Predict the structure of DNA-binding transcriptional regulator, Lrp family.
Amino acid sequence: MVLESARLGVAWRLPRLRSDQADALTEHRVAATSPQISNIGNLSDVEFATKRELGRDARISAAEVGRILHVSSSTAARAIRTLLQSGAVVPRVEIEPAVVGYPLLTAVSLDVKPRAIGAVVDTLAQHPSARMISTVTGASSISFHGVFAGPVEFSQFLKDDLGALPSVRTMSSAVGLRIARRYWHDRDGFRIGDQVPNVLRR
């Protein structure tokens, strides 16, 4: 059982930009300027339906949303703007790691001394390969999912990075052979497929 996640897959970034380039792009992000929506139940029917359509296709236009929901394009545009400005929808670029040189998907289970769990989680969350890090129940206290360029890089991570953490008592690792679904979207090879029906409910 996942108790708490310190990092999720959506936070993974392709390590190819310099810090000044990343800062320049950050200036163009859509900031949440309206009061944040903390409960999906606070969305209007049109806003909720618009959020579902954006989940299926983030590139959908306001005009197309309007046609699907049988509302005017201005109403759909207003709903999209509300979702963006309230932080109910956060735009991002979906990167398939295998396509950009990181085909090795790995999972590592770590048995860590209880008093060091927080420190180990924080350390691993900063590693560039990390996609998801969670505190979990069971024989292992930490679950780490990461992506690597190949077996050599993964071996270096096990020996150098994990090996440098004295609080790690034991570990076990596995490699993913195929991604069937990610972020509630089916995968067709490297291509993003359809979203799971009715994944967003209230």
Remarks:
- The longest strand covers residues 104-112.
- Residues 2-15+95-176 form a domain with the Alpha-Beta Plaits fold (CATH 3.30.70.920).
- The CA atoms of residues 40 and 202 lie 7 Å apart.
